[in-house]
Design a protein that fits this description.
It comes from Sphingomonas pseudosanguinis. GO terms for molecular function: phosphorelay sensor kinase activity. Keywords: Kinase, Membrane, Phosphoprotein, Transferase, Transmembrane, Transmembrane helix, Two-component regulatory system. Pfam families: HATPase_c. This is histidine kinase. The chain has three domains: 141 residues, Beta-Lactamase (2-Layer Sandwich); 54 residues; 150 residues, Histidine kinase-like ATPase, C-terminal domain (Heat Shock Protein 90, 2-Layer Sandwich). By secondary structure, the protein is an alpha+beta fold. The radius of gyration is 49 Å and the shape is rod-shaped. Helix 5 packs parallel to helix 6. A five-stranded antiparallel β-sheet has the order 2-1-5-4-3. Strands 7-9-10-12-11 form a five-stranded mixed β-sheet. Strands 6-8 form a two-stranded antiparallel ribbon. Helix content is 56%, strand content 16%.
Length: 449
């Protein structure tokens, strides 16, 4: 079974391959371009030299051309081939092979071996061959100089390839070290979270618009913060649920024991009725906890377009008879009719119903409850107002907590979860829930952007 390379090794290897490939392509291009430029320069030089000598021949005939060839070459110069050949390919004058190995034909430019013997048999040259009367004019240069330049360039390019390979290895190692370090920091935080420590966060190299690792760290930190908050809320809910269920369960057990011992059927029936009350209270608490959890897990794809005014009027019509039976004046005030909004209709209806229930229960002494819809600076406002005793400003934060019950409400049945559900629904819709003073009474306000 072969062992797979680690991600760091693969990153380093990929960096080396990319660096080497890019440098080889660059080296090949430079080598080819340099060779082509050298041959093009040789071509221009030979053509210009041949044109000049042909002009001399046209003005002074063969003697003048022979003299020009003699003076055109420095003594001992073997890099310039200038010669006159007869119709059989034998050299008449100048520096060249004694007999041409190339065909006698008008040749603008060509690279070939000019002779068959001596140094000429192993030397390629770039040349031109033109007729001059019954003879031929040869102008050329061996490619020795170009080949020497190419060898020097090839050596330099080979050194450049080696250096690029070394740089590629170094760059790959540095890049692999950087990536590994960033990944290890993320893995360390994830391992700590897996062991139960949700307080650690991934450090950022650059805040704001950093690299991909920074963006990953920001999202991971946000996720860990959310998980930490949910875990804290879960602990609060668990502790509070256990604490608040203890009393009704104890009462339920006591009343059950008493009901078992009662012999009188009428008294036993009354005792069983008390059991039902305690059971209903426990069921309401559990149901409310489930509703809060469900509201926090709902996604926005469950939202539908709902007209706020229609929703308020529909809920108001349901509660108007309830308020009338309780001897309260119930008002529905729709101050604006905004366009339909994306709303989770069921949860929003539940939240508004909880607001009205609280107003009817705790604000009944004021004699009036108002359900109001209006447009505020930050969005649409669903508001329930009563004329009861209200809640002091110092106690409002406690009232919004899960299982948060004020001392004045301890004597009435309830679990202290209604406000928490409303706040969860507000967060689900990107809004907020707040309590205010109605002077007298309480204003419960649900603001949706």
């Amino acid at each position: 079974m072969t062992r797979r390379l680690t991600i760091s090794a693969r990153i380093a290897l990929l960096s080396i391959i990319l660096a080497l490939t890019s440098n080889l392509v660059l080296v090949g291009f430079i080598w080819k371009q340099t060779s082509a430029d050298a041959v093009a320069a040789l071509h221009r030089e030979i053509v210009e030299q041949a044109d000049a000598l042909r002009a001399v021949w046209r003005t002074g005939a063969l003697p003048a051309l022979a003299d020009a060839i003699t003076h055109a070459r420095e003594p001992g110069d073997v890099t310039l081939v200038l010669a006159i050949f007869d119709s059989r390919g034998h050299r008449v004058a100048g520096y060249a092979p004694d007999h041409l190995a190339v065909p006698l034909a008008d040749t603008p430019f060509r690279i070939a071996v000019l002779g068959r013997s001596g140094v000429w048999g192993s030397r390629e040259a770039g040349y031109t061959l033109h007729p001059i009367g019954g003879d031929w004019l040869l102008v050329g240069r061996p490619l020795d100089l170009i080949e020497a330049q190419q060898i020097a360039i090839e050596r330099a390019l080979a050194l450049a390839v080696v250096l690029s390979l070394m740089l590629g290895v170094g760059t790959g190692l540095v890049l692999a070290h950087y990536v590994t370090g960033r990944l290890n920091s993320i893995v360390a935080v994830m391992d700590a979270a897996g062991e139960g420590d949700l307080s650690r966060r991934v450090s950022l190299v650059r805040a704001g618009e950093g690299d991909a690792f920074d963006r990953l760290a920001v999202r991971l930190n946000a996720m860990l913060g959310k998980i930490e908050q949910l875990m804290a809320e879960l602990r609060v809910v668990t502790d509070s649920l256990a604490h608040d269920l203890r009393s009704p369960l104890a009462r339920l057990r006591t009343k059950t024991e008493q009901a078992v011992l009662i012999a009188d059927p009428a008294q036993r029936e009354a005792a069983l009725g008390g059991l039902l009350v305690e059971t209903d209270l426990i069921m309401r608490m559990l149901t409310m906890v489930i509703e809060i959890s469900r509201s926090e897990s709902v996604t926005r794809d469950r939202f539908t377009q709902v007209a706020p005014a229609d929703l308020v009027e529909e809920i108001g019509e349901l509660y108007a008879p309830v308020a009338e039976d309780a001897g309260l004046r119930f008002l529905i005030e729709v101050e604006d009719r905004p366009a339909p909004l994306p709303i989770h209709r069921e949860l929003m209806s539940q939240a508004l119903s909880n607001l009205i229930d609280n107003a009817l229960k705790h604000g009944a002494s004021g004699g009036q409850v108002t359900l109001r819809l209006m447009r505020g600076l930050e969005g649409i406002v669903f508001q329930v107002e009563d004329r009861g005793p209200g809640i002091a400003a110092a106690d409002r934060a406690q009232a919004l907590k899960r299982f948060g019950r004020l001392d004045t409400a301890r004597t009435t049945p309830g679990a202290g979860l209604g406000m928490a559900l409303i706040e969860a629904v507000a967060r689900l819709h990107g809004g907020r829930f707040e309590l205010g003073d109605n002077q007298p009474g309480l204003v419960a306000r649900l603001v949706i952007p």
